[in-house]
């Protein structure tokens, strides 16, 4: 348990959070590994897990009919994966949250896997923790949105 | 490194012969030119020349060659307009006109004993190449040397072999990303600011040199701000319609400055106010 708390504290997403909060999160966390090619998340499956990547890289992919898997981004150590459990997408709350992208290990990946439902309950029970994590999730979402906007602009396309 | 001034009358092109043409991409090529003077062609990294394709016209093109090899003038050009398309049709042995070098340079002397962070987007790697080559040749003058480069896709790498060679060195950090890729690509897929967010930086000792599409540089500046790099440590290369090259004609006016003479390399804090003015 101490090891998990230490690993949680060492991840940039939880950096600076109090020791007590790390201890609370330990109950939702396990250490996981993936081999290259293995999927961390599959589009359409129930969103249960929030990953904090510790080592290795993973690719976020969307399956496009006729084109196959399209790689939209790669993430690595220090990044997080799997935000669908937050239900921030506005989906019907009576339905289970769904994963919207495939996430596939490109290298051997080591991550902390947090159970989304467990985390959600902890955040509901402790609003201070919930507020801190929501602020970080919002910042993360904002940064990702900013990057998607730049990506969408296709700025390197030749134009006279 | 002082900024060289034009060899001859800045308004009169000198003749230069194309000694080699490298095809970088279907629409991007690199010219190697025999220097127009026997004494060589001295320039400072970041400067540009006006290149004249006889019968077609003249365009400003950054110098992409090695500043330690003045006997050869190198330009990397994208064929996007009438003049550059005509240039793409020229071959080894053909002659062109050259005026220059013009403009300001990357602040390599100021950056001594600092970390040098190069941030390139697409063809923006070409104007940074002379500065990178200088930094690698005079490696002991700088602390860390970091090159972050973004391209549209894996098929759009410019200077791919050279990037791979730099990456193989133990004293340089090189990270390359593409905006989009299929699953056969094993590298990083992300925009350049994502590389800035990840790289190890000492903000108070970093000099950042940025070149690429203006929108990309805006996002990159924002990420550097988040990392704590002060504006006076960020330098950007701006692009406008340069014509005369010496600040007479006014075509490249950028607020109270002329890009051909006061730029193309600007310290960011000096143009921050202009950077976000639309259509300037």
From TrEMBL, chain A:
SMART domains in UniProt: cNMP
InterPro entries: cNMP-bd_dom, cNMP-bd_dom_sf, RmlC-like_jellyroll
Residue ranges of every copy of the Cyclic nucleotide-binding domain listed in the record: 13-82
SUPFAM superfamilies membership: cAMP-binding domain-like
Listed Pfam families: cNMP_binding (PF00027)
Name of the featured protein: Cyclic nucleotide-binding domain-containing protein
Lineage, uppermost ranks: Bacteria, Pseudomonadati, Myxococcota, Polyangia, Nannocystales
TrEMBL record, chain B:
Alphabetized Gene3D superfamilies for the sequence: Nucleotide-binding domain of ferredoxin-NADP reductase (FNR) module, Translation factors
SUPFAM superfamilies, per the entry: Ferredoxin reductase-like, C-terminal NADP-linked domain (SSF52343), Riboflavin synthase domain-like (SSF63380)
CDD domains reported for this sequence: sulfite_reductase_like
InterPro entries xref list: Cyt_c3_hydrogenase_gsu, Dihydroorotate_DH_Fe-S-bd, FAD-bd_FR_type, FNR_nucleotide-bd, OxRdtase_FAD/NAD-bd, PyrK_electron_transfer, Riboflavin_synthase-like_b-brl
Residue ranges of domain FAD-binding FR-type in the record: 11-108
Protein name: FAD/NAD(P)-binding protein
């Amino acid at each position: 348990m101490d090891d998990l708390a230490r690993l949680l504290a060492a991840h940039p997403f939880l950096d600076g959070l109090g020791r007590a909060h790390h201890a609370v999160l330990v109950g939702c966390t396990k250490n996981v590994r993936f081999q290259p090619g293995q999927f961390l998340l599959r589009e359409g499956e129930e969103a249960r897990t929030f990953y904090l990547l510790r080592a290795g890289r993973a690719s976020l992919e969307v399956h496009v009919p006729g084109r196959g898997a399209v790689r939209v981004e790669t993430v690595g150590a220090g990044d997080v994966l799997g935000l669908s459990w937050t239900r921030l997408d506005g989906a019907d709350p009576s339905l289970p949250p769904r994963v919207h992208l495939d996430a596939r290990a490109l290298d051997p990946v080591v991550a902390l896997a947090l159970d989304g439902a467990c985390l959600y309950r902890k955040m509901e029970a402790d609003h201070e923790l919930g507020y801190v994590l929501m602020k970080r999730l919002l910042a993360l979402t904002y940064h990702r949105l900013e990057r998607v906007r730049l990506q969408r602009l296709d700025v390197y396309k030749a134009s006279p | 490194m002082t900024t060289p001034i034009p060899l001859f009358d800045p308004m009169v092109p000198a003749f230069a012969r194309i000694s080699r043409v490298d095809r970088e991409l279907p629409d991007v090529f690199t010219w190697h030119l025999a220097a127009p003077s026997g004494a060589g062609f001295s320039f400072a990294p970041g400067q540009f020349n006006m290149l004249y394709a006889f019968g077609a016209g003249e365009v400003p093109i950054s110098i992409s060659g090695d500043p330690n090899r003045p006997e050869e003038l190198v330009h990397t050009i994208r064929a996007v307009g009438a003049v550059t398309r005509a240039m793409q049709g020229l071959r080894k042995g053909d002659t062109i006109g050259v005026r220059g070098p013009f403009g300001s340079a990357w602040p390599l002397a100021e950056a001594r004993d600092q970390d040098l962070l190069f941030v390139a987007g697409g063809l923006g790697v070409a104007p940074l190449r002379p500065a990178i080559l200088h930094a690698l040749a005079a490696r002991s003058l700088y602390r860390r040397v970091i090159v972050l480069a973004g391209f549209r896709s894996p098929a759009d790498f410019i200077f791919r072999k050279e990037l791979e060679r730099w990456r193989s060195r133990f004293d340089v950090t090189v990270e390359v990303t593409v905006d989009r890729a299929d699953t056969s690509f094993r590298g990083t897929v992300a925009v350049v600011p994502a590389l800035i967010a990840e790289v190890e930086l000492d903000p108070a000792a970093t000099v950042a040199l940025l070149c690429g599409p203006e929108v990309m540089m805006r996002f990159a500046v924002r990420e550097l701000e988040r990392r704590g790099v002060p504006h006076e440590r960020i330098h950007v290369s701006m692009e406008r319609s340069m014509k005369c090259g010496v600040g007479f004609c006014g075509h490249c006016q950028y607020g109270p400055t002329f890009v051909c003479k006061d730029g193309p390399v600007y310290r960011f804090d000096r143009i921050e106010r202009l950077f976000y003015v639309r259509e300037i």
